[in-house]
């Protein structure tokens, strides 16, 4: 009898654990559907450099067999290697190796990079059971799954099985969390370590177990060694600690917890310091350097949203973005959970609901305070999501309990009904997979509504949508096709994703010469701000040959830069007659005047100089009447110069007057001005 009870209990526990673990399984099944994001290549390279230093005490890759041949093959995959190459990662970079990072590292701490490289080393380089990129992403999925598992265990312990199921659903069905758990090397890892640290600290205090507190210190250290967000953890745990203990004297009576609490900061700092070799040679200066970096990205980049988002200096963008990007069902139950806290808090000995509320508000509030900033959506404060999921579990639990107190069967009906409410978001995520991180909910009209309202960072996915375009090209592009990105760098798509005959590099861009290369780019709010002319050119002159849409909004496009795929108007550029162009130079300005208003495509200035480049640090303005001037967004670049010729491109800009303001002194003589236009 005891054996059978034990057996069925074991089966039950296995089935229960299978529910949160299904997120991990689903992550592995879908792992090949996602590209790297813009941040990941640099982190992969750094992780490999430090991993080699830790494993082999080597700061380069020269001792690896056939490493040179491997790098040559990666540079030009059309040339077959003469030897069977070992499985090395494309991110084991000879230039950015251990020597480089030990001397020049900066930015975020590298523990997550090192762990991702370790996963690559095991699952790709040694075992070969997954591909190079997928092996890195197993780390992302694993740490995200740990967060899911902890939320399941925590909520089940406090509020029961049904609440834990809703909490898990409310976390994994956050579209941003699901997508970023595949392609974000920093924020999901930070969220997971943050979550485990809170849970183990809670268990340590509540159960009076030193091992839990030391585990919390370890995970806090791992969080700090990933990102600095964990420094806000005391704002959560200290108020809860005193609310739980009632007074300090009560806690002091539990003397056995004093030592692990005193050791807590030491453990945290030790993990942070030991896992970042860059700090070892000059700890004080380099740690301060890291803090200044975070100060720069956390406070110096102010007003990154329109002024309408600021109320008395408070940035409402994080709150509004949570409102518009969280599935409505999760919003509803989390609000119910939040509203229920005052009713349950006094009855709770553990005060866990108070802890959850502090956890939910702290990351969001710190991003809204005057002087703070956030950009690119809310992935940077993802730590709030597990707390929001727990609130949703509490809310669903509260509803069921209220109905069950009326009639027992009503509680069961409510549970089934609540589960059915999650079906629409499941269906939505399936329909937009693998682009869940561009999701907006119906409160703003979906992604199309966000685009219509020009909501900041609509469609922004850090390039994770590129893979769909690459797979289309691999199927449809002609042999030996040339491919480039419009505004991003070539590192944002791994070369190994392309067919071996396809030549992928950003030098493929031929501009208005239209030499037939393919161009790829993600489309989002502000997507042409970096390389404005290139972005405007493809968006205005060319017709896309392929695009991926979410809510009928393109999020990635492919263009073929040839005459066949150009709009007819732009195939008939004309030169403005030299007699219709006059120019003059006045101090720091150079003025060009046309006899008529033209839709200008480019202006070419022929000059002679003593070796300098005129206009190099200048800016270009245009006007149709000579009084109202518009500054061009495209800066003057070195690529605009060749053989005593300066060529500045436009995309059918109406102008009669062109002005170039160049404050840099440069002695030059103008030999002529040419211009082309379209009608």
What do these coordinates show?
The chain has about 675 residues and is α+β, with helices and mostly antiparallel strands. The protein folds into 3 domains: about 40-420, no CATH class; about 465-570, no CATH class; about 570-679, Sandwich (Jelly Rolls). The chain is about 50% helix and about 15% strand. The protein has helices spanning about 1-30, 40-55, 65-75, 100-105, 110-125, 130-160, 160-170, 175-185, 185-205, 210-225, 235-245, 250, 260-275, 285-300, 315-325, 330-345, 350-365, 385-405, 410-420, 425-430, 445-450, 465-475, 530-540; strands at about 310, 315, 480-485, 505, 520, 545-550, 555-560, 575, 580-585, 590-610, 620-625, 630, 645-660, 670-679. The longest helix is centred in the N-terminal third of the chain and has 28 residues, at about 1-30. The termini are far apart. The model has no long low-confidence stretch (mean pLDDT about 90).
Q: Tell me the overall shape.
A: globular
**What structural class is derived from the secondary structure elements?**
alpha+beta
Calculate the terminal CA-CA distance, rounded to whole Å.
90 Å
What's the tally of helices? Answer: 23
β-strand percent reads 5-15%
Oligomer: single chain
Overall mean pLDDT stands at 91
Counted up, domains total 3
How large, in whole angstroms, is the Cα Rg? 29 Å
Can you count the beta strands?
A: 14
Low-confidence stretches: none
Helix content: 40-55%
Largest sheet descriptor: 7 strands, antiparallel
């Amino acid at each position: 009898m005891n054996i059978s009870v034990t057996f069925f209990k074991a089966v039950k526990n296995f089935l229960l654990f299978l529910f949160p673990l299904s997120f991990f399984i689903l992550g592995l099944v879908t792992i090949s559907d996602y590209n790297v994001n813009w941040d990941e290549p640099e982190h992969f390279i750094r992780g490999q450099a430090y991993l080699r230093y830790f494993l082999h005490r080597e700061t380069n890759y020269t001792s690896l067999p056939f490493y040179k041949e491997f790098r040559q093959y990666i540079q030009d995959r059309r040339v077959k290697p003469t030897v069977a190459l070992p499985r090395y990662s494309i991110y084991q970079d000879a230039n950015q190796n251990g020597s480089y990072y030990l001397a020049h590292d900066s930015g975020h701490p590298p523990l997550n990079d090192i762990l991702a490289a370790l996963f690559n080393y095991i699952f790709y380089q040694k075992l070969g059971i997954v591909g190079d990129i997928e092996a890195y992403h197993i780390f992302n999925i694993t740490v995200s799954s740990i967060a899911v598992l902890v939320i399941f265990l925590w909520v089940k312990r406090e509020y029961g099985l049904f609440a834990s199921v809703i909490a898990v659903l409310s976390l994994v069905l956050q579209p941003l969390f699901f997508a970023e758990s595949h392609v974000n090397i920093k924020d999901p890892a930070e969220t997971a370590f943050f979550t485990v640290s809170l849970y183990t600290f809670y268990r340590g205090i509540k159960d009076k177990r030193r091992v839990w507190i030391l585990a919390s210190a370890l995970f806090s250290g791992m969080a700090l060694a990933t990102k600095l967000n964990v420094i806000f953890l005391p704002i959560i745990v200290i108020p809860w600690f005193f609310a739980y203990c009632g007074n300090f004297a009560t806690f002091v009576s539990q003397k056995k917890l004093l030592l692990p609490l005193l050791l807590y900061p030491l453990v945290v700092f030790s993990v942070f310091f030991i896992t970042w070799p860059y700090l070892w040679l000059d700890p004080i200066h380099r740690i301060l350097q890291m803090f200044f970096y975070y100060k720069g990205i956390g406070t110096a980049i102010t007003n990154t949203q329109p002024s309408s988002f600021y109320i008395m200096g408070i940035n409402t963008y994080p709150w509004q973005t949570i409102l518009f990007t969280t599935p409505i069902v999760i919003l509803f139950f989390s609000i119910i959970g939040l509203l229920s806290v005052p009713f349950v808090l006094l009855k709770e000995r553990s005060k866990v609901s108070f802890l959850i509320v502090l956890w939910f508000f702290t990351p969001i509030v710190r991003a809204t305070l005057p002087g703070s900033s956030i950009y690119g959506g809310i992935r940077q404060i993802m730590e709030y999501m597990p707390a929001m999921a727990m609130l949703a579990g509490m809310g669903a639990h509260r509803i069921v309990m209220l109905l069950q107190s009326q009639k027992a069967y009503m509680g069961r009906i409510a549970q089934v009904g609540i589960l059915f409410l999650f079906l629409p978001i499941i269906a939505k995520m399936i329909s937009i997979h693998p682009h869940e991180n561009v999701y907006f909910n119906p409160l703003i009209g979906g992604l199309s509504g966000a685009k219509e309202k020009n909501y900041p960072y609509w469609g922004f996915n850090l390039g994770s949508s590129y893979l769909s375009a690459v797979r289309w090209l691999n199927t449809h592009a002609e042999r030996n096709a040339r491919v480039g990105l419009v505004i991003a760098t070539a590192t944002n798509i791994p070369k190994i994703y392309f067919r071996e005959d396809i030549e992928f590099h950003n030098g493929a861009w031929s501009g208005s010469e239209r030499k037939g290369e393919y161009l790829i780019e993600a489309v989002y709010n502000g997507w042409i701000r970096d390389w404005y002319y290139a972005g405007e050119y493809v968006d205005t002159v060319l017709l896309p040959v392929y695009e991926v849409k979410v809510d009928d909004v393109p999020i990635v496009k492919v263009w073929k830069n040839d005459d066949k795929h150009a709009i007819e108007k732009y195939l008939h550029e004309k030169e403005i007659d030299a007699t219709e162009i006059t120019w003059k130079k006045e101090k720091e300005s150079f003025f060009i005047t046309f006899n008529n208003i033209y839709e200008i495509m480019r202006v070419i200035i022929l000059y002679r100089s003593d070796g300098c480049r005129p206009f190099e640090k200048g800016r270009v303005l245009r006007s149709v009447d000579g009084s109202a001037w518009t500054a061009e967004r495209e800066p003057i670049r070195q690529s605009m110069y060749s053989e005593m010729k300066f060529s500045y491109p436009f995309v059918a800009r109406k102008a009669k007057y062109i002005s170039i303001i160049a404050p840099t002194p440069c002695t030059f003589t103008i030999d002529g001005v040419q211009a082309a236009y379209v009608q």
